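Format notes (please read before filing issues)

Several people have asked whether sequences and structure tokens are stored in separate files. They are not. Every record keeps both together, in the order shown below: the sequence lines, then the token lines. Line labels are part of the format and must not be stripped during preprocessing.
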Amino acid sequence: MVVPRAKALAGLAWRPVMARLRPRIEQIATDRIQPELDRLHTHIADLRRDVEQATKELDGHVKWLYDEQRRLAPHLAALEARIAAFERPGSVARLAERLEYAPDEVEEVRAEHARIRARLAAVSKYEERLARLEEDLAARRQVAG
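Then the structure lines:
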């Protein structure tokens, strides 16, 4: 019973001392930590600038890809329909359409179809690359955030 009472009296005597020392202790701790905090704030600001720049570049690339895809889609659909007529001989409905093409036109259509497939493959690879960059950017944001 004596020990708890002594602890309580020591606590009462210690409170005014601690109340005066606490602001000084906090000031010393802040002074020691502040340079590191400033460095971290600067680093975070640099990362934000880098992320904003990368985002702007990616946005431009994505818009360009979207426009290219939108522009090529009708051409590809038309070519697919034309090639389908050549691939399915015997279709009465397409007989007249098939007969109006000369052999050199068939080769021209096939060549154009190959070029469009190559373009779409390039767009697909570019979209895949953008997806990887977006994942990397998201990972950087999580690290910085």
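For reference, the curators noted about this record: The chain has one domain: 2-144. Residues 2-144 form one domain.
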